Every structure is written in structure tokens, then in C-alpha cells.
Amino acid sequence: MSETRVHLSKTEPAAYQALDAFSKTVGQICADNGIDERLKELVMIHCSQLNGCAFCARIHVDRAVAAGVDADTLTQIPTWRESGVFSERERAALELAEAFTFISEDGISDEVYDQVGSVFTEKEYAALSWACVSINAFNRIVIAGRYPVPPRTQQAAG
């Protein structure tokens, strides 16, 4: 097993810089369309968990803590369907995150589209969808390159 992998962001920095700029645009679209940092970070964490991307999970957990997400909520993201801590909007966003992450299985089913669309406006749905596209792209780059998990930047709130 090769420990050294092509580091896409270093080997072709222009493409990575374009993805980073795209990510910043998506963040602004979320902010402009009513998706607060808490909701966006829950989506980013869930996609990263589903993809098995520890690097991105670490980054977005720290950002979620900075946005006021507590430890109890963070630990319940993988079991959001059974958990009572998430709002209707958060539950819909987590559902959409799963649909985008596993898009090759069922696409965005009519059931998910209708359910999420009943909770979010068209602009909110689009913003969250772009957020899912963005984090799934980063997850793939990081996982393929086996990027080491970065050190903590925040202490998790209890």
C-alpha cells in the first residue's frame, strides 16, 4: 500500500484554487439565501462522515462549534433520524446531504425532492445542493490523496 499519493492541490494548484473559489461562492450563496452557518456546517459534517473523510469532518466540526453547535448535537448527526435534537429544516438538510452523497444509488428521489422542497424555498434548496456538491468534491480530493487529519482549531463545546 502506497503511503505517498499525488497531492492534487499541490500538483495542479490552479484546479484546487478554482474549487476553493467555488466553495467560497457557495458559502456566500448559502448566506445570501437564508442558510445559516449552523445548518451549512451540519450538512458539511454529515457528507464528510458519510464519505469517511476525517480531514473534512475535523475542519467542519471546528467550524460548527464556532457556529454554536454543541457536542450533543454533533454526536447525534450520524443518527439524526432517531434523534430528537434536530429541527425540521436540519432534518431536511441532512436528508438532502445523504441524497447528494449517495447520488449514484437513487439520484435525488421524488420523495426526497418533495420532502426537502416542502421545507426549503427554491433558493435555499439550491444553496444547500451546491453546498453538498462542494463538500463532496473536497471529500473526494482529500480521500484520494490520503491527506492527514489537521490538528484541532477549536475546543468542542460541551
From TrEMBL:
Organism domain of life: Bacteria
InterPro entries in alphabetical order: AhpD-like (IPR029032), AhpD_core (IPR004675), CMD-like (IPR003779)
Molecular-function GO term, any one: peroxiredoxin activity
Pfam families associated with the record: CMD
Domain Carboxymuconolactone decarboxylase-like: 13-99
Designated name of the protein: Carboxymuconolactone decarboxylase family protein
Species this protein is from: Microbacterium oxydans
